[in-house]
Design goal:
With 326 residues, the protein is mainly β. 5% of the residues lie in helices and 40% in strands. Strands 6, 7, 8, 9, 12, 13 and 14 form a 7-stranded antiparallel sheet that branches. It has a 6-stranded antiparallel barrel with strand order 1-2-5-18-16-15.
């Protein structure tokens, strides 16, 4: 006789931690990064497909469904005859042990400023003072190699974080190559804000090597291809600001990888920050402790093209081979 429990152990998603990935949303009405569980073989957790970016592992991952359930009642006893849902809402919380520009953007939610390397004696500013002039990219630059003139190459060293984007030209609306990084309701002064787009852009990377003509980057830039008119500047720090008006928006994918058994995935097509930035303290052996970034996010609705239904999140389970179906 077949044992109905023989494959039960393969039905539980077991993992050491949840892996997190984000992708920029084309705002205000542009493309949303897709995740298709039927094409799971195309999503390599260690090398996610474009445009997905890895956030690393997250801890204390918690999902909350806040959609309201209402009922129509009928008859003398007020029996429930029909149920329906109103005000679709879902929230998501987790802690990020790693600090970086993406991690801070997901936890803080406002513009993520790049504090550019400053000129000597420049007036101090909370988001960075007057910057060293940008180095224009030369012909032949790619998302992995930034060609510069010899004198400009001398301004950089291996290990520098760099921001690559266009000069600010007086435009309004969403700005930033590769991912909307800020929203301007009115033009800024061109004389003092030439570097503004590079101050907020997500088009950043780390210099891994320097050749006789170019900076070699450790990670490809987010925006492809590199376009004429872009320049590069050194980034000294990442800064967010409590109280500013911009809301980050990203697609999110959270994976419980299969150490044993199947894989569980939670795909949020649109996520916006629902609370200001704060840190979660994690105790180690006294007196050591760490500060993890705490993210609280709202899921925004999208429409499923298969049937026109409103969707906040897709939860999928990918069974391991030969596992029971139920």
């Amino acid at each position: 006789m077949n044992n109905p429990n023989a494959k039960r152990s393969q039905m539980a998603p077991l993992a050491r931690a949840v892996r997190a990935y984000v992708a920029p949303v084309g705002r205000p009405s542009g493309p949303i990064a897709a995740y298709d569980p039927a094409a799971e073989g195309q999503f390599n957790l260690d090398s996610p497909p474009v445009p997905w970016l890895t956030l690393g592992y997250v801890e204390n991952f918690q999902r909350t469904a806040a959609t309201k359930y209402e009922a129509l009642r009928n008859g003398p006893l007020g029996n429930i005859t029909v149920q329906y849902r109103t005000q679709p809402e879902a929230r998501l919380e987790f802690d990020l042990p790693s600090w970086g520009k993406l991690q801070m953007a997901l936890s803080g939610g406002t513009e993520m400023m790049n504090a550019l390397a400053t000129l000597p004696l420049s007036q101090p500013q909370g988001s960075g003072g007057a910057a060293i002039p940008a180095s224009p990219l030369q012909s032949g630059s790619t998302i992995s190699s930034l060609v510069l003139t010899t004198d400009q190459l001398a301004l950089f060293v291996v290990g520098d974080i760099v921001a690559v984007d266009a000069d600010y030209g007086g435009q309004t609306g969403y700005i930033g190559a590769g991912a909307p990084a800020s929203y301007l309701t009115s033009p800024l002064d061109l004389g003092t804000h030439l570097d503004y787009i590079r101050r907020v852009t997500f088009n950043i990377s780390t210099v891994s090597a320097i050749t006789s003509s170019a900076l070699t980057l450790a990670q490809p830039l987010l925006a492809a291809p590199v376009v004429p008119g872009m320049s590069v500047q050194r980034v000294m720090a990442f800064v967010d600001r409590e109280g500013s008006s911009f809301f980050q928006e990203w697609s999110g994918l959270f994976v419980v990888p299969a150490d044993s058994g199947g894989r569980a995935c939670f795909y949020y097509p649109r996520l916006q920050v629902a609370a200001g930035g704060r840190e979660a303290r994690q105790e180690f052996a006294a007196p050591l402790f760490s500060h993890m970034l705490h993210a609280t996010l709202h899921a925004l609705p999208t429409t499923d093209l298969n049937d026109g239904e409103t969707v906040l999140c897709y939860r999928s389970y990918l069974p391991t081979k030969y596992a029971a179906a139920y």
